[in-house]
Design a protein that fits this description.
- It is a single chain.
- The chain is an alpha/beta fold.
- The chain has 3 domains: 170 residues, FAD/NAD(P)-binding domain (3-Layer(bba) Sandwich), CATH 3.50.50.60; 114 residues, no CATH class; 98 residues, Polyamine Oxidase, Chain A, domain 2, CATH 3.90.660.10.
- Helices cover 34% and strands 22% of the residues.
- It has 14 helices and 20 strands.
- A 7-stranded mixed sheet has the order 8-7-16-17-18-15-19. A 5-stranded parallel sheet has the order 10-2-1-14-20. It has a 3-stranded antiparallel sheet with strand order 5-9-6.
- Strand 12 and strand 13 form a beta hairpin.
- The longest helix has 20 residues.
- It binds flavin-adenine dinucleotide.
- Flavin-adenine dinucleotide binds next to helix 1, strand 15, strand 19 and helix 14.
């Protein structure tokens, strides 16, 4: 009997289950945690709703945006859409020229960037143009730092532009980051249509943005969503799969989409014939993301909803008052590994508050004394996106068992879009194989 089990209720699992439900295919989504969303979720803390980390979406996130539409989310209400503008405090600003089509909008933006010399602007444009001519393809992957050096990118340009983009997109320091994946991001975000480079910020908490509407959609289409239910083992049952869950139940499913993080794959598939994916899942390395929430008086407001920081540990500050109406709440993001990891939370929060004071001198007095703080560190926020990284394929090698997740082979780094595309791809492949009367 046709019934698909999707294991894992992050972006990938939700996307897979929603795409199956859309085609009226019986599906049950299992999520180990009490809430859906995985690494893109909100949580309650001391009466406040905070995201596990501030997320940015891009206009190029076609699958994520299509899923929001499928779930009936009103994007104008749910997302603040900002045409590309990277403002770093102090002294750097890159604004895309909105009257021009892509890629001229970004090239013109680079030529007018504030805080760069003419030479640095020219080198940035030359880099983009050369990469475009090369079709954004490298003969062999290398670290982004190496590529930028070969391309003679001035140190200041790297520090103000390429490094922040790399950290935000790949969550991996430039010395370790894959130049090829970085180029994929440039290609998809900056050079196709103008709105691809728009930045989209949630105007509500993350769970309400994506996870909850998708779960509602799945249920409306007669799918089942079981939270607080971990799958403990998967075994073959003829051509089907027998799943045992943490509530001691077992049931048989015709297909399985395994949408758990890579470090859970080996354990979950240990009763199955060996998967080739396991070796690459086991050798995958991770990078953290830390979000420091600082609450100030509700009257405190920054000039912009999102500002880059240049002179310390914090990389971006988001004014949540301008996003989800939590006035006076600032979220400071620190991507990837760094010395901040050795600081106790209390010390890190004070250091970040002091950095904010220096970045916005006119608000310094207020910013150095928050009313409360909360530090959330996700130690395995994303896989380390290193050169030539071997990412497992969606087809597991066992008929009817698919892998999905931000780590599965694809063009994107670990992002909501990478996860959503991977889940949707697995579902589409499964649907196609059903239509063709075969199971892959
Ligand atoms: C702090 C932070 C900031 C980020 N910022 C951005 C950003 O700005 N933009 C962006 O696009 N991306 C960002 N990301 C990355 C993005 O959140 C992830 O790439 C994406 O959410 C991964 O989705 P996933 O479904 O692949 O994995 P996950 O979200 O990890 O989902 C896997 C799910 O499987 C569940 N699970 C595990 N084992 C079992 C089991 N045995 N049975 C049932 N369920 C199980 C887990 O509980 C989890 O919910 C950020 C991530 C973090 C942590």
């Amino acid at each position: 009997m046709l019934h698909v089990a999707v294991i894992g209720g992050g972006c990938a699992g939700l996307a897979a289950a929603a795409r199956l439900a859309e085609q009226n295919i019986p599906v049950t989504l299992f999520e180990a945690a009490r809430q859906l969303g995985g690494r893109a979720r909100s949580l309650r803390w001391n009466g406040h709703t905070l995201d596990n980390g501030q997320h940015i979406l891009l206009g190029a996130y076609s699958e994520t945006l299509s899923l929001l539409k499928l779930a009936g989310v009103d994007q104008a209400k749910a997302l603040l859409r900002l045409p590309l503008q990277l403002t770093m405090q102090p002294g750097f600003e890159l604004r895309a020229c909105h009257s021009l089509p892509a890629p001229l909008h970004i090239l013109c933006g680079l030529m007018l960037a504030r805080g760069l010399s003419w030479r640095e602007r020219w080198f940035a444009v030359r880099f983009m143009s050369r990469m475009r001519l090369a079709g954004f393809k490298l003969g062999q992957d290398q670290s982004l730092a190496e590529l930028l050096e070969i391309q003679e990118q001035p140190e200041k340009l790297t520090r103000l532009l390429w490094e922040p983009i790399c950290l935000a997109a790949l969550n991996t320091p430039i010395a370790k980051a894959s130049a090829q994946v970085f180029l994929n991001v440039l290609r998809d975000s900056f050079l196709q249509t103008r709105t691809d480079s728009d930045m989209l910020l949630a105007k509500q908490d993350l769970s309400r943005l994506l996870a909850l509407p998708l779960a509602e959609f799945i249920k409306k289409k007669q799918g089942r969503v079981e939270t607080a239910t971990a799958i403990d083992s998967i075994a073959l049952a003829g051509e089907a799969f027998e799943l045992e869950d943490s509530k001691g139940r077992s049931a048989v499913y015709s297909h399985v989409i395994l949408a758990v993080p890579p470090f859970r794959v080996a354990q979950l598939t240990s009763s199955l014939p060996a998967l080739t994916a396991v070796a690459s899942c086991e050798t995958m390395r991770y990078q953290p993301i830390c979000t420091v929430y600082l609450q100030y008086d509700a009257g405190l407001k920054l000039k912009l909803p999102m500002t880059g920081l240049r002179q310390g540990m914090g990389q971006w500050v988001f004014d949540r008052g301008q996003l989800d109406g939590q006035h006076g709440l600032l979220a400071v993001v620190i991507s990837a590994e760094g010395s901040y990891q050795n600081l106790p939370q209390e010390q890190l929060a004070s250091a970040i508050a002091a950095e904010l004071g220096r970045a916005f001198p006119q608000l310094a007095e207020k910013l150095t004394a928050p009313l409360w703080h909360k530090v959330i560190t996700e130690k395995r926020a994303t896989f380390a996106c290193t050169p030539g990284l071997h990412r497992p394929k969606m087809l597991s090698g066992i008929r009817g068992l698919y892998l999905a997740g931000d780590y599965v082979a694809g063009d994107y780094p670990a992002t909501m879009e990478g996860a959503a595309r991977s889940g949707a791809n697995a579902a589409r492949h499964l649907i196609q194989s059903l239509q063709q009367g075969k199971i892959s």
